[in-house]
Specification:
Structural class: mainly alpha
Order of helices and strands: HHHH
Helix content: over 70%
Radius of gyration: 14 Å
Shape: elongated
Number of strands: 0
Number of helices: 4
Number of domains: 1
Largest sheet: none
CATH architecture: Up-down Bundle
CATH topology: Monooxygenase
């Protein structure tokens, strides 16, 4: 594994893990009042597109990070819709 790939995975880890506290808090409290549904919709679609891009271009740090972030963002968005 080369340095660029290692840096990519480190960056992916940092940005992806940042969603975990919000996802956990949202699941525990079901409080989504401070979250914009429009923003999360666009963000989740963007994350899915980055995931597809990463897979198609075989840029695995991009694909892996966005796959995980997509799960977190989708979870938060579902809770936002379900618990308005």
């Amino acid at each position: 594994m080369n340095l660029t790939t290692i840096i990519g995975y480190m960056a992916a880890f940092g940005t992806t893990i940042s969603f975990l506290p919000q996802a956990v808090k949202t699941i525990r409290t079901r409080d989504t009042s401070g979250i914009s549904l429009t923003m999360y919709t666009f963000f989740t679609i963007g994350t899915l597109l980055w995931l597809i891009y990463g897979v198609l271009s075989t840029q695995w740090p991009v694909a892996v990070a966005n796959a995980i972030t997509f799960v977190f963002a989708s979870t938060i968005m579902v809770y936002k819709i379900k618990y308005k």
